[in-house]
TrEMBL record:
PANTHER family for this protein: GEM-ASSOCIATED PROTEIN 6
Domain of life per record: Eukaryota
Gene3D superfamilies: 2.30.30.100
Protein name: AD domain-containing protein
Classification lineage: Eukaryota, Metazoa, Spiralia, Lophotrochozoa, Mollusca
A Gene Ontology BP annotation from the UniProt entry: spliceosomal snRNP assembly
Ranges where the AD domain occurs: 76-174
Organism of derivation: Magallana gigas (Pacific oyster)
GO cellular component, one term: SMN complex
CDD domains: Gemin6 (cd11676)
Length: 177
């Protein structure tokens, strides 16, 4: 009918993100609408476009495939051992300075910074899937290796103030400058 409004709702509002989370770090086979099949380890899935980012490993190379959401017809899990390539996948997308630090050093940096932020009466909490982020009221996140350049926020005022606070952290508080 003419003048009728299309009231269809985008799938992001009806599909549970947990549906996608079940595939993370698992080896899957994605059947596309053209009949082709793409196999790889799931790095991430965009919940809006429903596109899959897959990594495949051979002895001498790593291949990245992006399967666009509209072309996905079926997803089958081939290997559920999410730990098989998890560290290798995560290492590919970490900044080099994070790779140079041990897990103990990163944990120490996180705790020193958290202590400094708490001392300044900020509501800081540990966040992220693996507890790797520091979060201040869900308005700002600090990623490893927990420096000024690792702060993420859409609020420029909060971002500037927290970065200034980190820059002014006393050297006896921040042994890893």
């Amino acid at each position: 009918m003419e003048g009728e409004i299309n009231r269809s709702v985008h799938p992001i509002f009806t599909r549970d993100p947990e549906d996608f989370m079940q595939y993370l770090n698992k080896q899957v086979s994605v059947l596309k609408e053209d009949g082709k099949e793409v196999t790889g380890w799931v790095y991430t899935i965009d919940p809006v476009s429903e596109s899959f980012v897959l990594l495949s490993f051979t002895d001498d190379k790593t291949q990245l495939d992006i399967v666009m959401g509209p072309s996905v017809r079926q997803v089958s899990v081939l290997d559920e051992n999410s730990e098989t390539y998890k560290k290798r996948i995560e290492a590919m997308f970490r900044p080099p300075e994070v790779e140079a630090l041990s897990e103990e050093e990163l944990e120490k940096r996180k705790n020193v910074l958290k202590s400094w932020l708490l001392k300044n009466r900020l509501p800081v909490q540990v966040a992220g899937n693996n507890g790797e982020l520091l979060s201040i009221s869900d308005a700002l996140f600090i990623e490893p290796p927990y420096g000024v350049e690792n702060c993420r926020s859409t609020n420029e005022i909060i971002l500037g103030r927290i970065q200034g606070l980190i820059k002014n952290m006393p050297s006896d508080q921040e042994e890893w400058c």
